[in-house]
Amino acid sequence: MISRRRILGRCLAVIALSACRTLQADETQLKLAFVPQENPDKLLGDVTTIASILSERLGYPVKGIVTLDHAAAVEALRNGDVDISFMGALPFVLAEAQMGAEPLLSEVYRGSPTYKGRVFVRRDSGITSLADLRGRDIAFADPISESGYLFPLDLFVGSVGFFWPDFFRRWLPTGHASDGVGVG
Amino acid sequence: MASGLVDAACASEYADSLLSPDQQSDIEWIAETSPIPAHVVVARPGLEDHLKQPFVEQMLSLNEPENRHLLAYLYGPDGYVTTEPAVYEGVREIARRYGLLS
Q1: CB B12 to CB A115 under 8 A?
Q2: pLDDT per residue as tens digits for the range B55-69
């Protein structure tokens, strides 16, 4: 026959286990980092909204922060300050090399998980090739940008064998990968 | 560049969509890079599966018609697909070429 003391003990154990589970559930949360793009103010509002929606759907708190830049997002991942970050492919491979960060999802645009960088000119400029840009002024994005810096750099080196400062007259950094097209 | 401050600008193929229609008609592109993997959603090392998997499922559910409006809150892609480390080998190669990776 099971004693009342043993039943009480089992009950307390069950209660304690439930409490532990509740505590564990309460502590579950996901922290997301977002890197600013062309409109940081809008992004801040967007992050709050999407974190709230994900939180509701996942059943635990989801918090979103906007980092200062890609480097800060990588650092936040490394420190464990965030669990997941949205970032470019170049910051990702750097984060992967530094800490073993894991790629989960890729954005898709117009049906493709890849896109291209382009060198834009004014139609009336008379410039028709990369070689025509010798001695001209050019705008590049931040060096962490794939489409606005790193891949175009490789394009110039591969096509004309030169890169700034030898090739261009002036090199204008523009920040975000989209800014240079409209700059000025 | 569209305003004439510089002669050329390097940017995403979608950058000109940020310009006014008049500005768009004033510019053209003369060279294009090889394909670049789109932005990535990255997990810190050791993120537990019980957190990672439901998150991935929720993100993929944004591809469904009834959820697609929510993509506007995430930089506005057309959707998400799962990805893997091999996809980024081209980026690693070019990063090594210019001393960003050892």
Answers
A1: yes
A2: 999 999 999 999 999
